[in-house]
Amino acid sequence: MASIHYEPKLVAILSISFFFSCIFVSSTGLVAALDPALLVSEGNALIESGWWSDNSSYSYLSSNPCMDWPGIVCDRAGSITEISPPPESLKVGNKFGKMNFSCFPNLVRLDLANRDLIGSIPQISTPPQLRYLNLSSNNLQGALPGEIGNMKNLESLDVSYNRLNGPIPLEIGDLKNLESLDVSYNRLNGPIPPTVGGSAKLRSLIFRQNKINGSIPLEIGNLKNLETLDVSYNRLNGPIPPTVGGSAKLRSLIFRQNKINGSIPLEIGNLKNLEFLDLSSNVIAELEKFGRIISEFKQYQWFNSSYNEQFEKLDISRPFQQSNHWINFSYNEQFEKLDISRPF
Predict the structure, then answer these.
(1) Domains of the chain, with CATH numbers?
(2) Does the keyword field hold Signal (predicted)?
(3) Which helix (H) or strand (E) holds 124?
């Protein structure tokens, strides 16, 4: 059942380049949310998309989408602020590109997770103020378009569990308000763009299970609000940059199953809030000094360094601050020395 929110919403404009514009602008340059023509255009765009009207289950729908259209949320003026059709009964399929998003100037949330989306992500040409975009768990292919960087007010972007390929666009760093980025479980390749360091509000950055290669960029350390970094199951190489110690709010740091080598930078010792660290299945050679640092972590609970072929020795002779720690050193063929001369 559609609902009406009795709170003003931020203005958002999402425009697909191959559609004509549906944006209604007042003489002051602001979107005229009360313009009857705008409300009519929103309703027409929903009907013409075929998402609901081609489904016999929704033959009862009225001409007012704010009244009874499932997955439609409106503001007090009757303008659409959210589109999230129910996944259990409505599959968008190849009709994704038929929706003229430029007709929704007050849209702040677009949730199309698990709607059987097919094809590529439509090219976005007009910078909107959309805050939440979820396209996860679909069958989208092709590249993540660079035009995504035009959505300057985007706070959450989730395109996980698709079949996207190609590089991560440099324009991702233009999303200055982005707090969460999840591109996991795709086929993305190329390096992590150094421009990602420009998204200073990021709290969660998930690159898990792709084909990303190259080294981890130094600019990761610019993300002062970052709490979760997961680059596991990729093809990254080179050492972990010492700048990662600049992300002092990190709680979860996952490097599992890459080709990361060298020593672990002592700057990780700056991560006093770290709870979860996974270095397993890499080619890390030496952790001797690092072992003394992790023993001082007050929040630290989980450490995995298994399956590191070059791993030789670790010094954890200093006692841990807490006793609830899980440590795994298994399957390290070159492991020679473990100093635990003082108790945990």
Answers:
(1) 3-339 (3.80.10.10)
(2) yes
(3) strand 124-126
